[in-house]
Amino acid sequence: MIEAVLLSLAGLVGLAIGGELLVRGAVGIAQKLGVSTLFTGLVIVGFATSMPEMVASVQASLAGSPEIAWGNIVGSNLANTLLILGTSALVAPIVLTGTGRRDAVVALGVTLLLWGLALSQLGARWIGIALLVGIVVYIVWRYRNPGAAVPEDDAGDAPQGIWLALALFVGGLVVLVLGGDALVKGAIALATIFKVPETVIGLTVVAVGTSLPELAASIAAALRGKSALALGNVVGSNIYNILLIGGATMTIAPFALPVGLADVQMAFLTASAAGLLALLWTAKNIGRRLGAVLVAAFAANVVFVFS
Fold it and tell me: How far apart are CA 112 and CA 3, in angstroms?
């Protein structure tokens, strides 16, 4: 048991360090490209901070544990919308200026698609490939419609040189792979020891662990008053998790989603995606009170999953 716990902790540390390096490198690259803050959050940082989920889910699929892989995807999206956005709002209110509405529509659409796959119990390699094509289409669309360019200082702590940024990006990816492998092995061992379904481990331990880079990036953005970056990171990560990570998972392990995800968890995930879209259309900001409600909702779901 001690070995499994230490392996899991080592994996979490590796994901946190690798994710931080990856984010810094990604933001540095975006800074040199001169793209908008929202585009940086949605595409560059969203991609970078989704790499822990990507690595963990792919490793789980290769290890013959698709339950952990899909639980990680659903749990990470719940963590993004409730825990991370809520915690960021507790640190500093997230200003909603009408940005990100189209992307929130995409996020809700792909969430409904995932729920449909879970309910229909469809699983095939062509579906995984179709999801991967979907993320390529999304990136191209956002690149052609990036929004206004932003000043240099929006990149925060980004490295100054493009080569340094690329080195941090690649180095972070290497650390993520090692950390993801350790986390998945430790999580499988813990599920076996405590006789907990692997889906539950994926929804909670692995999901929260792989969401640490999103949490760090969004809090840092909120502290610097970059609401668009914090919001874009959350929405972009949710889209990546379903299309890129879900697509890779189903391509590697072309099986249907775990039955346990088809009812309450997917319904809760869809409700959170719809709620975020509603906020973007109707609210001016996500204040500390609403942030506390979001965090409490995530905590309540964790208790429900384990019960």
Answer: 39
Across 81-89, average pLDDT? 89
* pLDDT value, residue 208: 78
Best mean pLDDT range from 27-41, 130-144, 166-180: 130-144
Average confidence (pLDDT) over 270-290: 89
Q: Name the CA dihedral angle for 276, 278, 284, 290, rounded to a multiple of 10 degrees.
A: -50
Residue 151: its pLDDT value, please? 42
